[in-house]
Write a structure and sequence with these properties.
Layout: H1 4-10, H2 19-26, E1 29-34, E2 39-41, E3 49-55, E4 58-63, E5 69-75, E6 80-81, H3 83-88, E7 95-98, E8 102-108, H4 109-118, H5 120-145, H6 149-160, E9 172-174, H7 177-184, H8 188-200, E10 204-207, E11 210-213, H9 216-220
Antiparallel strand pairs: 1-8, 2-7, 3-6, 3-8, 4-5, 4-7, 9-11, 10-11
Length: about 220
């Protein structure tokens, strides 16, 4: 378990909880480290934890019948995920893999269920999560059908600093071109070209292994204007 101060520092949803709710929540959360390339879970696993990224970077996606890996998006520090599978009491519908060494906060299902039953603030947070994730999956359909590599990279960058589900991200993303390509479903070379284009348009500044976002709104809509 972790202490109350650490929980509040890694989980935006904890800010609105009462002292009693914080106490119950912290006793159900543990920290675990995953090395680069390690899986948190595979599709069809029954993984009974709600997870939040403390530091590092993970991605979620799946492999289709032809063996092609499909990336759904990135999971940066501050983002919590997996609530849908817990609420529906079903197996995971995607793979989750670490793109670099990553520490995760894992909340066990009994604690998650207790917060859902007892905390209005916690449920409000989940509703906001669901709304943002719905937007992601609508965008994914558009990615697959209409967006080129630059637009895919732009929208994945915007997703990584989404202020609702990744409130700790800020405007600077520590990420390599290889990692950004993996998240966007494009090659490292295509990610590099996309970043150069976005930088030329004044939407980002590219630094060593990091991207500084200058206009998240335009990135989130890139390719759809």
């Amino acid at each position: 378990m972790i202490d109350a101060a650490e929980l509040k520092s890694i989980a935006a949803w904890a800010q609105g909880l009462s002292d009693a709710e914080i106490e119950r929540a912290r006793r159900g959360v543990s920290i675990k480290t995953f090395g680069r390339g390690a899986h948190l879970c595979h599709r069809d696993d029954k993984f009974e934890h709600w997870a939040g990224v403390v530091d590092g970077l993970m991605k979620f996606g799946s492999t289709d019948a032809a063996g092609r890996v499909v990336s759904f998006g990135g999971l940066p520090p501050g983002m919590w995920f997996g609530e849908g599978s817990l609420l529906k009491n079903e197996a995971r519908q995607y793979d989750v893999v670490a793109l670099r060494d990553t520490r995760l906060a894992l909340m066990n299902k009994p604690t998650f269920d207790w917060l859902c039953d007892a905390s209005v603030a916690f449920n409000r947070y989940l509703v906001r999560q669901f709304n943002e994730r719905l937007g992601l999956f609508i965008a994914l359909l558009e990615h697959a059908r209409t967006l080129d590599a630059t637009a895919r990279v732009a929208r994945n960058i915007a997703w990584l600093i989404n202020p609702v589900i990744a409130p700790r991200a800020g405007d600077r993303i520590e990420i390599s071109q290889e990692e950004l390509g993996l998240l966007s479903g494009v090659s490292r070379q295509a990610a590099n070209a996309a970043l150069r284009q976005l930088a030329a348009e004044g939407l980002v500044t590219v630094d060593h292994r990091s991207v500084i976002v200058r206009d998240r709104t335009r990135l989130a809509r890139y390719g759809g204007e």
